[in-house]
Amino acid sequence: MPLSFPPVRRWAIPVLAWLLALGCASAMAATPGSSSRPVLRCGWLDNPTPGNVWLTDRQGQWLIGEQGGYQARGDWPDFPASRWVRTNGWYGYGCACLSVLDDAAGHRILRILGGRSRPLAACLGDSRLPRRDPKADRQGS
């Protein structure tokens, strides 16, 4: 005996499709406390060792990546030698502005949308950023 199903009403398929789309959108939504719009964060970008990267701006320290663990999506900008202080081989720090999506509650960068390196003087001249001494910090100094 063949199975029979009740007839599908004309409105049922669009409603089910809408509910499915709503569920998918909710599942893909950003984490609680995260920015849904890009935020521009400017400050010291530190990369002291492989995989460890963070940005320190006027609002504190923002995790970008930690070795063997969390890594934000996206690429941080390239730094010419004049804008990068080498403290450990090729690793070190520089001044940068990043356009990001962040998790404000966890102080994590979720995604880097773009960015640019800045002259060291830009961060050195900002009294709201931690003090740095690039001459003393340079490898071999």
* Poorly predicted runs: 18-31
**Percent of sequence in beta strands:** 35-45%
CA-CA gap between termini: 88 Å
Category from helices, strands and their pairing: alpha+beta
CATH topology of the domain at 39-130: OB fold (Dihydrolipoamide Acetyltransferase, E2P)
Gross morphology = globular
- Gyration radius (Cα, Å) is 23 Å
CATH class of the domain at 39-130: Mainly Beta
Order of helices and strands: HEEEEEEHH
User: Treating each run of at least 4 consecutive H or I residues as one helix, how many helices?
Assistant: 3
Helix content: 10-25%
Query: What is the number of beta strands?
Result: 6
pLDDT averaged residue by residue: 84
The largest β sheet comes out as:
6 strands, antiparallel
The CATH architecture of the domain at 39-130 can be named as Beta Barrel
Labels describing this entry:
alpha+beta, six-stranded antiparallel β-sheet, 3 helices, 141 residues, OB fold (Dihydrolipoamide Acetyltransferase, E2P)
Describe this structure as you would to a colleague.
With 141 residues, the chain is of the alpha+beta class. It has a domain at 39-130: OB fold (Dihydrolipoamide Acetyltransferase, E2P). It contains 3 helices and 6 strands. It has helices at residues 12-28, 120-124, 134-137, and strands spanning 39-49, 52-57, 60-65, 84-88, 91-103, 108-118. Strand 1 (39-49) and strand 2 (52-57) form a beta hairpin.
Structure, briefly:
With 141 residues, the chain is of the alpha+beta class.
Give the helix/strand layout:
Elements: H1 12-28, E1 39-49, E2 52-57, E3 60-65, E4 84-88, E5 91-103, E6 108-118, H2 120-124, H3 134-137
Antiparallel strand pairs: 1-2, 1-5, 2-3, 4-5, 5-6
